[in-house]
Amino acid sequence: MTSSSTSSRKNLSKIASNRLQKELVEWQINPPAGFNYKVSDNLQRWVIEVIGAPGTLYANETYKLQVDFPEHYPMEAPQVIFMNPAPMHPHIYSNGHICLDILYDSWSPAMTVSSVCISILSMLSSSPAKQRPEDNDRYVKNCRNGRSPKETRWWFHDDKV
Amino acid sequence: MDSDDMHDANDVESLDDDFYSGETEDAPMDDYSDDYDDDNNNNNNNDADDDYFDDGADDSAQSRSTEINFAILKESDIRDRQEDDISSVATVLSIPPVAASILLRHYNWNVSNVNDAWFADEDRVRRKVGLLEKPVYENPDAKELTCGICFEAYRPSKIHNASCGHPYCFSCWGGYIGTSINDGPGCLMLRCPDPACGAAVDQDMINLLASAEDKQKYDRYLIRSYIEDNKKTKWCPAPGCEHAVNFDAGGENYDVSCLCSYSFCWNCTEEAHRPVDCGTVSKWILKNSAESENMNWILANSKPCPKCKRPIEKNQGCMHMTCTPPCKFEFCWLCLGAWSDHGERTGGFYACNRYEAAKQEGVYDETEKRREMAKNSLERYTHYYERWASNQSSRQKALADLHQMQTVHMEKLSDTQCQPESQLKFITEAWLQIVECRRVLKWTYAYGYYLAEHEHAKKQFFEYLQGEAESGLERLHQCAEKELQVFLSAEGPSKEFNDFRTKLAGLTSVTKNFFENLVRALENGLCDVDSNGAATSKATSSKNAAGSSKGKSGRGKGTKATVSSRLTDDNEWSCEQCTYANVGSATACAMCNQERQ
Ligand SMILES: [Zn+2]
Ligand SMILES: [Zn+2]
Ligand SMILES: [Zn+2]
Ligand SMILES: [Zn+2]
Ligand SMILES: [Zn+2]
Ligand SMILES: [Zn+2]
Ligand SMILES: [Zn+2]
């Protein structure tokens, strides 16, 4: 379930915006613990606050996720990145790209913004050390002209972390 | 430049060692040789030997090398086989065909692996491939169900689910399946959208929920998977050909020829390359691409006439060139020597296949000697490459001529000679033989290049055989190309046509025999020639290495292959003329037909 980068700039399809409306309502009734989202008038881009879980390396730290929805969401995965500054984490690059399979090859239309957020928080919580991926500099350099992480052929790090 | 070339000289040494060090680079023969134990092989060889000496028998080469161990599959055959496999698994496991299809895809279409795995641990297999026995999700008995993708509520009739029960509406299924199909062959392993589920989406659901266009793509992937994932089948590599080949275990012959007339090696999918093995072919192809810049000039189809120096265009298949008037010098394209020095006309030995490195001995200082060696190594390669490439282009030309013959000339010839086309088959047969021989001959130059320099006896024997092959084929090619020309332009029937028929048909059959024997001799690694003289078991079990070049007994003088003497058992005898070691029962030399003295 990959997508082209251009689709994220096209307007949401009717199916996509219906579904996002429903997700938004659900979020407002039942927001995932550790996340804040202030509704804006841009349905296609959500900026979500993440609060590091207590008892983890990121306790009390706050980061921001930027979620962009493609035209054919949810058949296509949303693009999810950390805004600057991105947390120090072995699967998170300094440009905010996240190496997490459900955001790319393993995306399923039955997943939601909320379920993606929960996965990302659990990834943060299980980190043993605050450090960048080994290939951070090379990868970030290659992404310099605004490449979407969805264009990367991801080779997923082991899922112990 | 010099140092590069030196490397090259070293490479040759090490490559040669590889070549003789065994079969490690070869295909995983074990998979294929189950039915062939050593006894069987020996029997086969002996049978071949007996046939061999039946005088003039055209089909004497019936042996393991010609047995058919493959089948060409058209699309309808592929579908039939696939359906057979699916229904066989469905019957044995008592499951629906769509479930059997999913299982087969997971086990690379190997029916017995599916059965084995299933009966070993059915639950594990079911979990692995996503064939659930009962739903994991119970739909509430409600008037409305919520689709797990669009989150809209639908009447149950608008909802569909895989064996797991997770409910999605028709339109979301359509989008889900369509996205997957357009993403590639992974759609054949599609699972329920629920991330924690894993239930398989079977072909019945695809047929129900996908668009017509997507169904067609899915069907294509299914066929491709059947051929590409199955270890016993491959697509024909010829461009535009849509046939597949099913290759069966047994035998050591990997050559396969498709209905489209392309022949290729099953094992490495390069063009058919008997008598050289796959490892040699890939080394040779690699070498050619590394040297391609240096070698471009060889592929040019023009050379200066050795006498008048005007450029001569090669526009015919055989190597016998005639310069344009007034020069009219006849020469050999390969060695640029006078044609009168070639072939039986002078009783001379055809030798332009040989590479004689300049052997100037003595007064070199070290640097000059190294430079000379480097130069020789490129020269040596050039020699073999040029002959390899010339036979390749002759083969292309022969293929075109064959086509022209079949589409244009046959009808006309049948007309002018007042003969039914069925009576002219000997001409197409001759051309088919030429095409095949050019292919074999071409590869003997790769063989020669990798033949160890220090195995003098083997090398000389090889060059002798190759020279005979080259000159025999030259006669056949020239007869089919030039002597036929007279009849093509004739106005009416000619008396000579029957003589021509006898000659061409005779040449075809003699050449066919010789080449078949040559191929086997080379495949056996020329093990009849044993420079140590040790009578190894190898040498005694491969007496089938020989060629019969009939009607050549007049050839006598000239360079002879001298094969060093070897221990012969009581029965074997060595030919007076060519020194070939013949089996005791033979009354004439298998190689040159000389009577036993
Ligand atoms: Zn399911
Ligand atoms: Zn739906
Ligand atoms: Zn073909
Ligand atoms: Zn091969
Ligand atoms: Zn000339
Ligand atoms: Zn010559
Ligand atoms: Zn002989």
UniProtKB/TrEMBL annotation, chain A:
Residues 15-161 form the UBC core domain. Coiled coil: none annotated. Gene3D superfamilies: Ubiquitin Conjugating Enzyme (3.10.110.10). GO terms for biological process: protein polyubiquitination. GO terms for cellular component: nucleus. Keywords: Acyltransferase, ATP-binding, Ligase, Nucleotide-binding, Transferase, Ubl conjugation pathway. Its EC number is 2.3.2.23. InterPro entries: Ub_conjugating_enzyme, UBC, UBQ-conjugating_enzyme/RWD. Pfam families: UQ_con. SUPFAM superfamilies: UBC-like (SSF54495). GO terms for molecular function: ATP binding; ligase activity; ubiquitin conjugating enzyme activity. This is E2 ubiquitin-conjugating enzyme. It comes from Medicago truncatula.
From TrEMBL, chain B:
The keyword Membrane does not apply. It comes from the Eukaryota. Residues 569-597 form the RanBP2-type domain. It is an enzyme of class 2 (transferase). Its EC number is 2.3.2.31. Residues 1-10 have a biased composition (Basic and acidic residues). Residues 1-62, 535-565 are annotated as: Disordered. Pathway: Protein modification; protein ubiquitination. GO terms for biological process: protein ubiquitination; ubiquitin-dependent protein catabolic process. The keyword DNA damage does not apply. Residues 535-551 have a biased composition (Low complexity). Keywords: Acyltransferase, Metal-binding, Repeat, Transferase, Ubl conjugation pathway, Zinc, Zinc-finger. Residues 11-40, 47-58 have a biased composition (Acidic residues). Residues 143-356, 147-191 form the RING-type domain. One of its GO terms (cellular component) is ubiquitin ligase complex. Its cofactor is Zn(2+). GO terms for molecular function: ubiquitin conjugating enzyme binding; ubiquitin protein ligase activity; zinc ion binding. It catalyses: [E2 ubiquitin-conjugating enzyme]-S-ubiquitinyl-L-cysteine + [acceptor protein]-L-lysine = [E2 ubiquitin-conjugating enzyme]-L-cysteine + [acceptor protein]-N(6)-ubiquitinyl-L-lysine. Might act as an E3 ubiquitin-protein ligase, or as part of E3 complex, which accepts ubiquitin from specific E2 ubiquitin-conjugating enzymes and then transfers it to substrates. Belongs to the RBR family. Ariadne subfamily. PANTHER family: RBR FAMILY RING FINGER AND IBR DOMAIN-CONTAINING. This is RBR-type E3 ubiquitin transferase.
